[in-house]
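Example with several molecule types.
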Amino acid sequence: GENVEQHPSTLSVQEGDSAVIKCTYSDSASNYFPWYKQELGKRPQLIIDIRSNVGEKKDQRIAVTLNKTAKHFSLHITETQPEDSAVYFCAAIITGGGNKLTFGTGTQLKVEL
Amino acid sequence: DGGITQSPKYLFRKEGQNVTLSCEQNLNHDAMYWYRQDPGQGLRLIYYSQIVNDFQKGDIAEGYSVSREKKESFPLTVTSAQKNPTAFYLCASSMSPGMDTEAFFGQGTRLTVV
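Resulting structure tokens for the full complex:
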């Protein structure tokens, strides 16, 4: 079926290093790809999104890349800090029978001092 | 905080009982969603509604029901047919019926079957 796959499930980096999280999707009609951050005990919040008419988008230390041909998109965090520790979710709009905002299974990022 | 509110924060249910989780938003958003969050499984879509008086099944709709009689309200009923209802439930809303705009989440309801 239509879904969004996310890797890795856990990621541990040293403070100051970069972190990369990758997602793939199966619906070729998808055109909106958001990323959400969920800190422990809190609700998910949007950190960045990208639409299919661009290949890359940056916001300070966060960037997202999109490869529509290969159907994958990635989140890049540079100069990681302890406050970046959280669960990150990618998502995509899956069409077919309506537009469904479908999430990946999440990546637990731990930034170690 | 604010904008989308879920209640209660914690809910306990006896086996065989139906329970209803409340979700209200004052953002004037067209689209609303219900997700279930289990450890290691991310956010799984239960039901969604792109416009008032209309809703569609998500990926795990069995054992759940919803209504969308008002734009600001999207209650979720967990029925006795749901075999494993203990989970964290998140409601969200977004401005666009096409769901291609930021989704705002409520603070969640943790349901426990006792």
